[in-house]
Amino acid sequence: MKRCEGNVAVITGGSRGIGAAVALRLAEEGADIVITYESSAERAADMVEQIKARGRRALAVQADSAVPEALTAAVDEAAATFGRLDILVNNAAVFLVSPLDDLSPSDIDRTLAVNVRAPLVASQAAARHMGRGGRIISIGSNVADRAPFPGLALYSMSKTALVGMTKGLARELGPRGITVNLVHPGPTDTDANPADGPNAETIAGLTALGRYAESTEIAATIAHLASEDGRYITGASLHVDGGFTV
């Protein structure tokens, strides 16, 4: 049984990595998919074809998540194109590791614009289109709870902010039947963070399971939250991190 049959989902930054895995999993669960992308039109077009190959409708919209107007327009376009909006996955993010002394004001502004402001802006736009059963799911990070090495202060701060946003939105949108949740992935094998990268063995060793996640494992949890099966989960921060924070 397809658990998201007939739903429409927007995944920000859905052309690669965890976002792409989520887009494909939700398509397999029966949802029509809209992805946003910042720069790679070719990669986004390939994702659209992969989604269509699974029998679902798909749309890719260019939008820099640091620009609120572009992000709001992308969400509105998704709802207008497919006639509804049921699921939002706030996935797009900037990952910057830098010593405190080297952080510039532009580094701080860009990270907070994409990692903190954009999820709130997209959630605000999506909630206008959602009815009962709507789902807002944000992608956090294992380093929101544990910063295992120096240089993570800015990124960790940006992902920790999503905990407060999730709790606040869950309380505000709960009476409308909309759930809001946060998923904290652990180290995950993607092109940006490969499981065979230079520090991967050390990072994998920080998890209880001793390995990186596959992006499909993160997507599976998001699919559960997005479906009717997740209807009584809201305001939660779920760690899908192989025991990184234990």
UniProtKB/TrEMBL annotation:
PROSITE patterns per UniProt: ADH_SHORT
Top-level division of the source organism's lineage: Bacteria
SMART domains: PKS_KR
Alphabetical list of InterPro entries matching this protein: KR_dom, NAD(P)-bd_dom_sf, Sc_DH/Rdtase_CS, SDR_fam
Chain ranges of the Ketoreductase domain: 7-206
Keywords associated with the record: Oxidoreductase
Gene3D superfamilies for this protein: NAD(P)-binding Rossmann-like Domain (3.40.50.720)
Entry's family note: Belongs to the short-chain dehydrogenases/reductases (SDR) family.
Protein name per UniProt: 3-oxoacyl-ACP reductase FabG
